[in-house]
Amino acid sequence: MSVKLSTRQVGDVSVVDVAGRITLGEGSSAMRDTLREMVGKNQKKILLNLGEVSYIDSSGIGELVSGFTTVTNSGGQLKLLNLNKRVKDLLQITKLYTVFDVHEDEAGAIRSFS
Amino acid sequence: MRDNKQHAAETVERFLDSTLESVDSAEEIALGVAQRAGFDEDDLMKIGMAVRESMVNAVVHGNRYNAHKKVRFSVAHNSQRYTVCIADEGEGFDFATIPDPLSPENLMRTSGRGIFLIRSFMDEFQMRHLELGGTEVTLVKYLVSK
After folding, report:
1. I need a surface site. Which of A46, B68, B123, B127 has the fewest CB within 10 A?
2. Interval A39-84: pLDDT, tens
3. How many A×B Cβ pairs under 8 Å?
4. Which one of 3.90.76.10, 3.30.590.10, 3.40.228.10, 3.30.565.10 gives the CATH number of domain B10-142?
5. Which residues from A are below 8 Å from B20, CB to CB?
6. Which of B52, B53, B113 has the CB atom closest to A94's CB atom?
């Protein structure tokens, strides 16, 4: 299964539910397109829910970094929600875990934007 | 780590096209052999990712998706070592130019973490320039009984 992204609005926060594999090719480009589109629509508060992500490679990590930079440079905030152990381990060994604002429950993550 | 069962030695070799489908195929073959060698779930994840990153390097950066160039992929294990070799037909690169993705100036780069992850997940990792052109990488994971 490749990646599947769906977006929903919770108050003024745009939540992107990501499921599947974020790998070089379709997976990473789908995430890039979604985030760029959201920035294009001037959405400033973006929460990436990675709870259903089964696999992420270095290209996927690169897309997370790219998305973070794109959103931050446009004056917005991108936060991460529900990292599974694999994704969390990867962000830790690449020293990116502390770069992102990571949350474990959605309500708390939503509140943190305000 | 692997269990205490005896696992028969095995070798698989393939010549793969320079496509992303080949990356998936190589990962699948490597994981099949690793599973039969007795690696646990955690090691299988590490091996799968290391093979995937190596194959992406061969297909994308080495052969640059060139339909006329192949990737030689082999995976083998004996009682002590699980070994994957991946060779491309690209122009090669200067190994000394590989950046450290953990240094502050590289931390927010969107690429350049592949080789770092391979080194992190395998027990041994070697790169060499091939005489007739191309780069070969060798990945080793030790088979140590619990």
Report:
1. B68
2. 999 999 999 999 999 999 999 999 999 999 999 999 999 999 999 9
3. 45
4. 3.30.565.10
5. 24-25
6. B113
